[in-house]
Design a protein that fits this description.
By secondary structure, this protein is α/β, with parallel strands linked by helices. Helix content is about 30%, strand content about 20%. The structure holds nicotinamide-adenine-dinucleotide.
Amino acid sequence: MKKIIVFSGAGISAESGLGTFRDKGGLWDQYDINEVATPEAWEKNPELVLDFYNQRREIAIKAEPNAAHKSLVDLEEHFDVHIVTQNIDDLHERAGSTQILHLHGEILKAECTVNKSEVVELSDPKMKMGDLSTGGHQLRPHVVWFGEAVPMMLEAERIVSEADIFVVVGTSLNVYPAANLLYACKKTCQKYIVDLNELSNVKYKNLKLYKGKATEQVPNLVKELIEKNE
Ligand code: NAD
């Protein structure tokens, strides 16, 4: 069975109502990244950081998977599919995809500030100061902040290096080291990009662009991949 790796970013969840990152009107137009998504922000004002992620979590819980998330599930009948996502929402899971690696963490989970490997599912979507791990230390959102290492990166590179087909959906490829995943593919790997815009930072051979909305272009691409494989 051929192996397909789908590398997704905020753009795949945009039509589910989750704000993207850098697009006009995106999240960082409304918030100063340094105040809410860095270790320094946590040191300076943890309540503000928790509040920011509590808001993101509330919106993520209400959102529903869209046609792009759902159509990727159809690939699983024909291919060995792995999703590597930069998204912290759980829309790939709720759509029904089965092999998902979250590079930047998961908003519905928390981690211990001291023992980072202690990760817990949140029972209350509103986190607050005083929420403690089993070891008695403050919990923080289970997300990778700017300036932090990306623990899942090596595993993601390993998976991508085995891909026969690599599909990029809805990421500006501006966040590193995640964007380096592009270069972990084999030379022979067929690559596809689905995005509203042409990504000027990508210099690729074997590349086909599906320009447009993820909810329209991902189902088109999925159909083509299945037909080609038959
Ligand atoms: P980004 O905002 O930098 O880029 C979004 C990309 O999606 C752009 O290239 C844009 O043209 C494209 N896009 C926007 N709407 C689209 C649509 N409807 N159809 C197709 N393409 C569309 O996002 P990124 O590259 O994922 O940035 C990475 C960071 O954003 C990650 O760290 C991630 O954790 C964080 N983030 C996650 C979420 C989420 O979990 N849903 C939301 C916002 C930000």
